[in-house]
Amino acid sequence: MNEEHARAAADIAEVEAANTAFYEAVERGDHEALSGLWLPGEDLTVSCVHPGWPVLTGRGDVLRSYALIMANTEYIQFFLTDVNIAMTGDTALVTCTENILSGGPAEDGDALGPLVGQLVVATNVFRRTPDGWKLWSHHGSPVLAETGEEDDEEPSAS
């Protein structure tokens, strides 16, 4: 493997680790760790779209949204599938499917409220910084329809 390919492979591994760290911080409810994963300052305005929410722009609004989510979610776990990483220069694009399992506040003395599953397709954009790869944008959209293969057979006449 030549030096260019080795560097590209290392970059992809670093972006994958940054992407995983993002989801793990949300799962732990670790707002401080999550804050450290986003681009600092406002030089490149960060943005975020949570499923069903309007576009949030600016580091303050984005981080407040995660604080709100963390404060109102007792349990959340992400199982990422279909992860794809594309890169150009100092920008990386990660697409994936978030298979989310979450639970709200407990009911009737239970330790945890009912668990709910949800599918979200996400795009995470990272920028290379002197401190590693940082999130520039996150966009999550709910999956509203099954994505299985369609039946190719013609419907039968009755």
Could you give a short description of this structure?
Residues 15-143 form the SnoaL-like domain. The chain has 158 residues and is of the alpha+beta class.
Topology:
Layout: H1 3-28, H2 31-37, E1 47-49, E2 56-57, H3 59-71, E3 75-88, E4 91-103, E5 115-129, E6 132-142
Parallel strand pairs: 1-6
Antiparallel strand pairs: 1-2, 3-4, 4-5, 5-6
List the main descriptive attributes of the protein structure presented here.
disordered C terminus, alpha+beta, Nuclear Transport Factor 2, Chain: A, 158 residues, single chain, globular
The residue fraction in helices comes out at 25-40%
CATH topology: Nuclear Transport Factor 2, Chain: A
What spatial form do the alpha-carbon principal axes imply?
Answer: globular
Number of separate domains: 1
Q: Counting H and I runs of at least 4 residues, what is the number of helices?
A: 3
Order of helices and strands: HHEEHEEEE
Contiguous low-pLDDT stretches (5 residues minimum) are 151-158
Pfam family, one: SnoaL_3
Organism: Streptomyces cavourensis
Protein name: DUF4440 domain-containing protein
How would you portray this structure in words?
With 158 residues, this protein is an alpha+beta fold. It has one domain (3-142): Nuclear Transport Factor 2, Chain: A. 29% of the residues lie in helices and 37% in strands. The chain has helices at 3-28, 31-37, 59-71; strands spanning 47-49, 56-57, 75-88, 91-103, 115-129, 132-142. β5 and β6 (132-142) form a beta hairpin. The relative contact order is 0.18. Mean pLDDT is 88; it is low at 151-158. This is DUF4440 domain-containing protein. Residues 15-143 form the SnoaL-like domain. Residues 147-158 have a biased composition (Acidic residues).
